[in-house]
Design a protein that fits this description.
It comes from Rhodinocichla rosea. With about 700 residues, this protein is an alpha+beta fold. The chain is about 35% helix and about 15% strand. Among the domains are: about 100 residues, no CATH class; about 280 residues, Rossmann fold (3-Layer(aba) Sandwich), CATH 3.40.50.150; about 60 residues, N2,N2-dimethylguanosine tRNA methyltransferase, C-terminal domain (Phenylalanyl-tRNA Synthetase, Chain B, domain 1), CATH 3.30.56.70. It is globular, with a radius of gyration of 35 Å.
Length: about 700
C-alpha cells in the first residue's frame, strides 16, 4: 500500500521507476507494450496511453495484492477492488471516453498530474482531483475531451506527428490538389482554417485573386518586365497564376515567414513546371523541373518577414493579404515601391471594418465608424484613409484605382505617385463625415481649419431643428475622393475577357457603371475608339488604334501636342466624379406602399435629372447625387398602395402637382409619408394631407 500511495502522488517519476522492475522480469513479453513505444515515438509515454484495454488491466496485475487498485485513479477516488469490478471501472470510466490516435488510446487520468485550484476548505484540497488527458505528441495535459481532439487535430494539420515537438512534413498521401485558373496547388486537408494550418487556401477568395490578377495584367501592359511581390504566399497560388499566365512580363517573388509554407510553395512551383530561385540567405543553386529553362518560368521564393523583404528591395507591384488587418505593413510597402507602381491590399478584419467592433477599428485605423446603411463603402474609405496617411509619411501620394467591399474582404488597389505635392493633394482628401442618425443623410465636412458655429447647417436635412437633442455624429477621418478609375477598370475588363476570368467580368461591368454613375449598358470586349488614350494620375495609356497612329505621322512634337490636347478634352469630359455613398431603397421605403422595381426607379431618377447607378456594395443600393429628400419624393411618387381598393398601377400623384426637380424640405417629405400611412382603405386622404402638408408647397 505504501508503493501505491507513492505512485498516486508522483505518477511520472515513481511509476516509471517502479515499472522498470517487472519489465526486466518479462523482457520477452512484447504484447503488453506497457512502456514500450514504436519507432514513431522515441520517448516514454504516460501510463494512460495504451493500445488495448488489457494493457491497463496488466498495469494493475503488477501488484501482488488480491484487491487490485486502479492505475489511473488515486486511492481517495477509487479504492482497491477485485478484478471483475476493476475491469468494469476501467472500461466505463477510462476506456470509453478515451481519444484515439494512430492505434493508441489516450485515456482519462485522475492522478495528481495536473494542478487544480484548492478549495476554500483547507483540508479538502485532494477531494476534487482534476481529470485530464495526456497528449501523446507534446505531453500537454488537456481537461476536456473535445479540447483534446482539437489539440490533436492541430498537431496533425501542422505536420507534428512525433513527440517532443518534432515538426515533420505531413505524408503526401494526405495532400489535396486544388486547381484554379489552370494552376495546381497542393494543400492540407484542413486548408480553409487559417489558425489551424500553415497552408491556408480559401476557395471563396477566388474573385479577389482574379481582380488582383487583372490589375497586375493592366500594369504589365504599361511597362515590362515588372517586379511583383506576393508578401503572404501561403500555398503560392497567387504568384503561380501571375507567372504562369503573364510569363516574361513579370518577375514574381513569393514570400512567407513560415517554413512549412515555403516548402509547400516550392513543391507547388515544381508541380506547375516552374523553376525556383532560392533566397540569397539559402543555397545559391536553383532547381530546374521539367522544361522550364527560360527565365520567364523562374519564381523567387523567400522566407522573411513581410516588412523585411519590402524594406530590402523595390517592387513595381505589391500585394498584401495578411490574416486580418494590413495596417502593420503599409509603411514598409510604400517605402520602396517604385513611382507609378501599384499597391493592393486585402483586409479580412470585417468585424471591425463593418462596425461590429468599433473599438478595434479605432485602434487599427484611427477611425470612428458606426453601423450605417452604407457601412461597406464606409469600410473601404476607412482603409483608403489609412493607406493615404501611410503613403504621405513616405512623401508619396495615391490615386485609388479600385475599391471593393464584399462579404469576406475589402480590396483596395492604389497607384503610387512619388513627390510631396501628390502627397499633399492626397492628404487633403481625408476628411470627416457628418452623418444624421435620424434620416441617414450624410455629407463630408468642408475643407478648412476654422471651427463653424453650427456644423448641422452643412447637412441638407433639418432633423436637428425638428428633433430634440443631438442628431448627427462625426465619423472618420475617411477618404473623400473617388473610389474607382474608369479607364483602369475598362482595361481590367478587357484582361478578364482575354484570360477567361468569368467570375470577375460581371463585377467589373458593375464597377464601370458605378464609376461613371450610369445605368447598366452593353459592354464591348474589343477596344473602342474612344479608349485609345486614357489618363490616370498623369500616366498616358495608349491602345492600338488607327486614329492614334495617324497622329504620329506629323512628327513627334506635333503628335505629343495632339495627344495632350486630347487628354485635356478627356479630362474635362470625365471631371465629374461619382457621388459618394449610396441609399438603400428598402431602408427608405414607405410603410403601406409597394415601391417600384429597382431598374425602373433608376430610370425615374434619371428622368428627374440626376446621375444614378447601381452599386456593388449593396444589391438594393442606389448611388445618386440626388439629396435624400428628392430621393424619397421620387420613391413616394412611383409607389403604389398595398391595400385592396386603391389605385392599382401608375404613380401616386402628389397634391398640388409638386415637381420632382424642386427642392422640397425634408420635414415636408416626412409629413407626406405620415399622410400616406394615415390614408384609409377608401383611398380618401385629402383632409389628412391638407392639414399636415405646408401651405407654401400645396397648390390648392
Amino acid at each position: 500500500m505504501k508503493s501505491k500511495n507513492v505512485d498516486v502522488k508522483i505518477p511520472e517519476s515513481e511509476l516509471e521507476a517502479e515499472d522498470r522492475g517487472p519489465e526486466e522480469e518479462h523482457p520477452r513479453e512484447s504484447d503488453s507494450n506497457i512502456l514500450d513505444l514504436s519507432s514513431d515515438y522515441p520517448r516514454d509515454k504516460h501510463i494512460s496511453i495504451q493500445r488495448h484495454l488489457a494493457d491497463l488491466e496488466k498495469l494493475a496485475d503488477l501488484r501482488e495484492d488480491e484487491r487490485k487498485p486502479c492505475p489511473l485513479c488515486p486511492e481517495e477516488k477509487f479504492k482497491a477492488c477485485y478484478s471483475h469490478k476493476l475491469h468494469r471501472h476501467l472500461q466505463n470510466l477510462h476506456w470509453k471516453v478515451s481519444v484515439e490516435f494512430e492505434g493508441y488510446r489516450m485515456c482519462i487520468c485522475h492522478l495528481s498530474c495536473r494542478p487544480v485550484k484548492p478549495n476554500l476548505v483547507g483540508d479538502q484540497t485532494l477531494s476534487k482531483m482534476g481529470a485530464h488527458y495526456h497528449c501523446i505528441i507534446c505531453s500537454a495535459t488537456i481537461a476536456r475531451r473535445t479540447d483534446m481532439i482539437g489539440h490533436i487535430n492541430r498537431h496533425v494539420n501542422k505536420g507534428e506527428t512525433e513527440s517532443r515537438f518534432i515538426t515533420v512534413r505531413a505524408p503526401k498521401s494526405s495532400y489535396e490538389v486544388v486547381k484554379e485558373s489552370a494552376t495546381d496547388v497542393q494543400v492540407l486537408p484542413n486548408h480553409y482554417t487559417p489558425q489551424k494550418t500553415d497552408s491556408y487556401f480559401n476557395p471563396k477568395m477566388k474573385l479577389n485573386r482574379q481582380l488582383i490578377f487583372c490589375a497586375l495584367a493592366v500594369l504589365a501592359g504599361e511597362r515590362k518586365p515588372i517586379e511583383c511581390l506576393d508578401a503572404f504566399g501561403a500555398t503560392g497560388i497567387m504568384g503561380l497564376q501571375w507567372a504562369k499566365h503573364l510569363r516574361s512580363s513579370v518577375k514574381v517573388t513569393i514570400n512567407d515567414c513560415n517554413e512549412n509554407s515555403v516548402t509547400m510553395i516550392k513543391e507547388n512551383c515544381h508541380l506547375n513546371k516552374m523553376k525556383v530561385k532560392l533566397n540569397i540567405k539559402e543555397e545559391d543553386n536553383g532547381e530546374t523541373v521539367g522544361n522550364g529553362e527560360e527565365n520567364s518560368d523562374t519564381i523567387e521564393v523567400t522566407k522573411m518577414d513581410a516588412n523585411v523583404v519590402m524594406h530590402l528591395r523595390s517592387f513595381d507591384f505589391i500585394h498584401l493579404d495578411p490574416f486580418g488587418t494590413s495596417v502593420n505593413y503599409l509603411d514598409s510597402a510604400f517605402r520602396n515601391v517604385r513611382n507609378l507602381g501599384i499597391v493592393s491590399l486585402t483586409s479580412t478584419d470585417i468585424s471591425s471594418l463593418y462596425a461590429k467592433a468599433q473599438h478595434v477599428a479605432l485602434r487599427h485605423y484611427g477611425c470612428n465608424i458606426v453601423r450605417t446603411e452604407y457601412y461597406k463603402e464606409l469600410a473601404a474609405r476607412a482603409v483608403i484613409a489609412a493607406v493615404t496617411r501611410a503613403a504621405a509619411r513616405c512623401n508619396k501620394g495615391i490615386e485609388v484605382l479600385l475599391a471593393v467591399a464584399l462579404e469576406h474582404f475589402v480590396l483596395v488597389v492604389v497607384r503610387v505617385l512619388r513627390g510631396p505635392t501628390p502627397a499633399d493633394d492626397s492628404a487633403k482628401k481625408v476628411r470627416y463625415l457628418i452623418h444624421c442618425q435620424w434620416c441617414e443623410e450624410r455629407v463630408f465636412q468642408k475643407e478648412g481649419n476654422m471651427v463653424e458655429e453650427n456644423p448641422y447647417q452643412q447637412l441638407p436635412c433639418d432633423c436637428h431643428g425638428s428633433m430634440p437633442g443631438k442628431t448627427a455624429v462625426l465619423l472618420g477621418p475617411l477618404w473623400s475622393g473617388p473610389l474607382f478609375n474608369t479607364g483602369f477598370l475598362r482595361r481590367m475588363l478587357l484582361e478578364a475577357v482575354q484570360y477567361g476570368l468569368d467570375e470577375a467580368q460581371p463585377l467589373l461591368k458593375t464597377l464601370v457603371c458605378e464609376a461613371e454613375c450610369t445605368a447598366p449598358k452593353h459592354f464591348s470586349t474589343h477596344s473602342p475608339g474612344d479608349e485609345n488614350k486614357q489618363e490616370e494620375c498623369g500616366v498616358y495609356i495608349r491602345t492600338p488604334n488607327t486614329s492614334a497612329e495617324s497622329y504620329l505621322v506629323h512628327g513627334k512634337r506635333k503628335s505629343e501636342e495632339v495627344l495632350r490636347s486630347a487628354a485635356k478634352r478627356q479630362r474635362a469630359e470625365h471631371s465629374a466624379e461619382h457621388p459618394p455613398f449610396y441609399y438603400n431603397i428598402h431602408r427608405h421605403s414607405i410603410k403601406g406602399m409597394n415601391m417600384p422595381k429597382l431598374n425602373k426607379f433608376l430610370n425615374y431618377l434619371s428622368e428627374a435629372g440626376y446621375r444614378v447607378s447601381r452599386t456593388h456594395f449593396d444589391p438594393m443600393g442606389v448611388r445618386t447625387n440626388a439629396p435624400l429628400a428628392q430621393f424619397k419624393t421620387v420613391l413616394m411618387k412611383y409607389s403604389t398602395p398595398t391595400y385592396v381598393g386603391a389605385q392599382a398601377e401608375g404613380p401616386v400623384h402628389l397634391p398640388g402637382e409638386i415637381q420632382v426637380g424642386e427642392d422640397v424640405p425634408a420635414a415636408a417629405v416626412i409629413k407626406v409619408e405620415e399622410a400616406k400611412v394615415a390614408e384609409d382603405k377608401s383611398g380618401v386622404a385629402a383632409a389628412v394631407f391638407t392639414e399636415s402638408y405646408p401651405t407654401h408647397c400645396a397648390a390648392e
